[in-house]
Design a protein that fits this description.
This protein is an alpha/beta fold and 381 residues long. It is built from 11 helices and 18 strands. It is globular and about 70 Å long. 43% of the residues are buried.
Length: 381
């Protein structure tokens, strides 16, 4: 490995490697040494990727030792959450030094997602360790991310152990929520569950909109906290059907409206008049790489500007950004730009981020992605 000053980051790029000795299979674990011959770490290699090696440890350990110890550490890190929550993220890729692996727990089921060739080769070992640690009814693999194609991997969605339903219901703060195994991510957005609880002081008697609603996480919390009425906007008919099932299961009949439409189109139309007390924006990531940053900023400005226009003044805007390439400073600049165009004042009432089961490592800035703001919006002057 070239003599380059590094922090404690698990990614080694091709430009950092001076030479590769010996034969190897793509995806296998290899040892990495500095130019002076000192052992640096152990990780898996894939020369087809710009990130040639992803380290799993800086100690000379066996594959099994690495997997068992890293999973044990990840579970230990989440003991308090596991004791109080029916659903949580057990393993968060680089944050748990298991690059390419996501594991979410929904009651008695585990859902795993594998995004790299090296982790694919360790899959059987990972599943075996998880089965030793948890008494589960089933383990489902939902490896359908587009990034797999860059690693030479096909999409895989199947039960690896046991079996279960397509929609897994689970409890969260006295609400019934759902993970849709045919939906997004691993089925649900566990990173937003605590942020949804933060809207409690602002919901009572409000006429609200949940934009990019998916299966209704924010809408369900708004109604639980006393909202008068909530519209759910999403392009996925299936997601809205599940949301309606949840709304009825939680006893919120008659207090909601489902709108199956593109969120951008709906916001453009609704921004012509001020009629909502509270608007929630929880969009998907608008950029997968730094090259798309400007486009992502435009997308976030469009939806926030339209939402500000549709609010009564004063009103509450709840806005999220999970686009990793946009920092919190970038996101707030977009909010300020939107406010300037709308001639409104923005007062940030609450800032949220990722929960403890989606930990951020300061050495690995890529593990920080979620920005969440609750704001009061009123006219300037």
């Amino acid at each position: 490995m070239n003599k380059i000053k590094r922090n404690y980051h698990p990614w080694i790029y091709s430009t950092e490697i001076s030479r590769i000795d010996g034969e190897f299979e793509e995806g296998q674990l290899v040892d990495v040494f500095l130019q002076d011959g000192k052992f640096f770490g152990r990780g898996y290699i894939n020369t087809r990727s710009k990130i040639t090696v992803r380290l799993l440890t800086t100690q000379p350990k066996t594959d099994r030792q690495i997997v068992e110890e890293r999973i044990e550490q990840a579970i230990k890190r989440r003991e308090q959450i596991l004791n109080s929550e029916h659903a949580c993220r057990l393993i968060y890729s680089e944050s748990d030094w298991l690059a390419g692996l996501i594991v979410d727990k929904y009651d008695s089921y585990l859902v795993i997602q594998i995004n790299t060739l090296g982790m694919e080769k360790l899959k059987d070992m990972v599943v075996g360790v998880l089965l030793k640690k948890f008494d589960v009814a089933g383990i489902y693999e939902k490896s359908d991310s587009p990034v797999r194609s860059k690693e030479g991997l096909n999409e895989v969605c199947q039960w690896l152990y046991g079996t279960g339903p397509e929609v897994i219901f689970y409890r969260s703060e006295d609400l019934t929520l759902a993970a849709d195994l045919k939906g997004q991510k691993t089925g649900a957005f566990l990173d937003q569950r605590f942020n949804a609880r933060a809207i409690l002081p602002y919901a009572k008697d409000k006429v609200c909109v949940d934009v990019f609603a998916y299966t209704g996480n924010f809408a369900l919390h708004l109604l639980k906290y006393g909202a008068k009425h909530v519209k759910l906007i999403d392009y996925s008919e299936r997601s809205l059907q599940i949301a309606e099932q949840l709304l009825k299961m939680n006893g919120f009949g008659g207090r909601y409206e489902l709108i199956n439409e593109n969120a951008f189109d709906w916001l453009r139309r609704e921004s012509s008049q001020e009629k909502y007390d509270l608007v929630v924006l929880d969009p998907p990531s608008f950029a997968k790489s730094a090259s798309s940053k400007i486009s992502a900023q435009r997308g976030h400005k469009e939806i926030n500007l339209r939402a500000m226009k549709s609010l009564k003044k004063p009103g509450i805007l709840v806005s999220s950004c999970c686009t990793q390439v946009l920092s919190e400073q970038d996101f707030e600049a977009v909010l300020q730009d939107s406010a300037d165009d709308c001639k409104v004042q923005v007062c940030i009432l609450y800032r949220g981020s990722q929960p403890a089961d989606h930990p951020v490592l300061l050495d690995i800035p890529e593990t920080r992605y979620l920005k969440f703001h609750i704001m009061q919006i009123w006219r300037r002057g």
